[in-house]
Write a structure and sequence with these properties.
Elements lengths: L3 H4 L4 H26 L9 H5 L3 H11 L1 H34 L10 H45 L4 H13 L6 E2 L5 E2 L1 H28 L2 E3 L17 E3 L10 H5 L11
Antiparallel strand pairs: 1-2, 3-4
Helix pairs in contact: 2-4, 2-5, 2-7, 2-8, 4-6, 5-6, 5-8, 6-7, 6-8
């Protein structure tokens, strides 16, 4: 399995791209408000209402500006996920060949391997496209929220300029989230895409490695490395049975919780 630090470099560029896009969306909103404000003096509060006419402009800009980073993240994974998974499997094959004495066809010729990678890419593309749709919708809602809060402040006696500035500052703190989960947590675009990319690589390498173990036989050995979760120390460097049909080795999935949030390969 890949070590945690092996994953760290894969998503840096995409995370930075999404962070930059979030900044561009925010700059677009500020410039739009500033341009509209420059047409009016401090005694005119009615122009705030006119800002709502630009809400769809914000949505369209966000939809447009998120195309490139989404395509880039997808292309990067489609280009290298299979290679990353193959390289990871090769690290385990030396032990597999020694223990089993078997000769198995090249991983490049395995349709099962290809299917695991393709399925993971499809799932990842769905998550990336979800972020794009969410950022467009959330930018729209943020802009309307700024205008709405400003209008309420104006009704309380604040000038339009001060009202819009205060509302903008407050909304800026939450940014343009790529996801608002069921718990109400707002995921910033850079954190979201880093999680998606790293989880995709982690899942693909774990699943293809496990597939390769099954192609060689019925045993799997958990790697040993510094920096693993404390709860996983007990599993390191141990051999497990993939099908549970031997008394010598414990069942892999039920013992280690493979694929669950708290288990081996969880994320």
């Amino acid at each position: 399995m890949l070590k945690p630090w092996d994953l760290s470099g894969y998503s840096d560029e995409d995370a930075n791209n999404y962070a930059n896009v979030e900044d561009l969306i925010w700059s677009f909103i500020i410039n739009l408000i500033g341009n509209e404000a420059s047409k009016h003096d401090d005694t005119d509060n009615e122009w705030i209402n006119e800002l709502l006419n630009h809400a769809d402009d914000v949505r369209q800009y966000a939809a447009k500006i998120t195309v490139s980073p989404t395509q880039h993240a997808s292309k990067q994974l489609h280009t290298r996920l299979s290679t990353i998974s193959q390289d990871n499997v090769k690290q385990a094959e030396k032990w597999l060949k020694k223990v089993t004495g078997k000769q198995v066809d090249s991983i490049k010729d395995s349709q099962q391997f290809k299917q695991v990678v393709d399925d993971q890419l499809t799932e990842t593309d769905n998550y990336l496209n979800l972020a794009r749709r969410n950022m467009s919708a959330n930018a729209y809602q943020m802009f309307r929220g700024i205008v709405g809060d400003a209008k309420r402040s104006i009704d309380s006696g604040t000038t339009a300029i001060k009202a819009i500035a205060k509302a903008s500052e407050q909304w800026a703190e939450q940014g343009v989230p790529a996801l608002v989960d069921k718990a109400g947590r707002k995921w910033s675009p850079d954190v979201y895409v880093r999680t998606v990319v790293n989880s995709s690589i982690n899942s693909a390498t774990n699943d293809t490695e496990l597939l390769r173990y099954r192609q060689y036989g019925s045993l799997v050995k958990v790697s040993s490395h510094i920096g693993c979760r404390p709860s996983h120390l007990q599993y390191q460097d141990h051999v497990y049975s993939l099908n549970g049909n031997t008394d010598k080795y414990p069942d892999f999935e039920s013992t280690t919780g493979y694929g669950t949030i708290t288990g081996i390969g969880g994320h």
